[in-house]
Amino acid sequence: MSNINLDTDPERNPANPETKHAAELAGPDDQTKLTFAQLAAQGHGATRLNPDAEAVLSVDDLKMYFPVKSSGVVRRTIGHVQAVDGISFEVPRGGSLGLVGESGCGKSTTGRLITRLYEPTGGAMYFGEDRVDLAKLSNRAMKPYRRDVQMIFQDPYTSLNPRHTVGSIVGAPLAVHKVVPKNKIKDRVKELLEVVGLNPEHYNRYPNEFSGGQRQRIGIARALTLNPKLLVADEPVSALDVSIQAQVVNLLQELQAEMDIAFLFIAHDLAIVRHFCPEVAVMYLGKIVEIADRETIYGSAHHPYTQALLSAVPDVKQAAIGGRRERIRLEGDVPSPINPPSGCRFRTRCHLAQDICAKVEPPLLQIGPRHKVACHFAGELGDAPRTPVTSGLLGVDGQGSPDPSVTPEELATGPGYEKRWFDVKSRQMVSA
Q: Which ranges carry the ABC transporter domain (predicted)?
């Protein structure tokens, strides 16, 4: 494997005692210091989506409610934070699914649920060929599966114990799971450090002797020790300088290609997700509001929230000709997850909202071969329908009241995609 050096990290300062050894780690400078918007404009990106790939992870109606306690001596539960509320998706074997949204939407909680750092309130997480439900396993029964599901944490400064050497940090999973003899752990750790582009001779150094980008590589090496089938990458580059973010993401792409690892890539930066993930899910206030392949999401998003997010991404092609993408500004604040609004959770900030949006929660409806959206007025930007597209499917009228003259359709609500879907223009079910 070709190594990608992180040693162009501007945080490295030889005069700083915390990074006095970082200069020794440096290799040739990487000349490719492009932003992800520039990379996307040049056609660089993730591998194409394989629609026939089996799912390594299938999440169905996953929920995580955190109890809210009252103050005082007797602390009673007075409510719940609905951090994740009934989401469903699949991660293909050897593929990548991007999970994006604003801070507080529940995406990081989703990652911690999948790795079982949190115990789900409800739902299922089917993993591997035998479709074991990770949500139902005890901590003891979960231990063998922790080898297959690993996590890269967001902050390289707090996710590494400053009292432990790099060797002990990366080697800890090997010792816990006893996958290699004790006398072979050091050799395995050095091999992993080399794989992620670090000098294996710095096995005995401490995290404070490395720059931020190098620390994140140490975290990646730790996640790779057990040869996982699925990596949950929780904002793996958000704490890094822009000049080295692309290098870390390119390293992850190399590792994915060579080791056939599946990724759940959590981020708030849509340009990074576009570079890495062939499929993208958008979350808002604990719900997935749209999920589709990359070309569909970035080319013809149908949910007004997705469209607003995309309008904030810099468009290099427009800038090159002196143009500028019109920014969609959302009014108001995100509602509280303790007391979310009725019906559609986005309606309080949506310019398309009508009565039906307050009365009926829109289902995550499949509207294309690999495209689902949860909106009563789903449509491309500037071409939203005037009347709700879902009323006939749900057996309600245009205001969301029950309509006895309409028989509601049986809609598939689980993860994955069906061979039949609802065409929003013709308002009919169509087949592949």
A: 68-310
Which among 298, 290, 332, 291 has a CA at the least distance from the CA of 315?
298
For 2, 75, 94, 257, 259, the CA distances from 254, given in Å and listed in that order, are 8, 50, 12, 5, 8
User: 241 and 178, same structural domain?
Assistant: yes
The dihedrals phi and psi of 421, each to the nearest 5 degrees, come to -150, 170
Q: What is the pLDDT of residues 48-101, one digit of tens each?
A: 667 778 999 999 999 999 999 988 888 899 899 999 999 999 999 999 999 999
CA-wise closest residue to 298 among 264, 331, 325: 325
Domain of residue 281 covers 37-69+76-290
pLDDT digits (tens, 9 = 90+) for 144-203: 999 999 999 988 888 899 999 999 999 999 999 988 899 999 999 999 999 998 999 999
CATH of the domain at 236: 3.40.50.300
Residues 130 and 198 in one domain: yes
Q: Is 302 helix (H, G, I), strand (E, B) or coil?
A: coil
> Global pTM?
0.85
* 143 φ, ψ (degrees, to nearest 5): -55, -45
Residues linked to residue 127 through DSSP beta bridges, in sequence order: 57, 132
Contact 230, 125 (CB under 8 A): no
**Domain tally for the chain?**
2
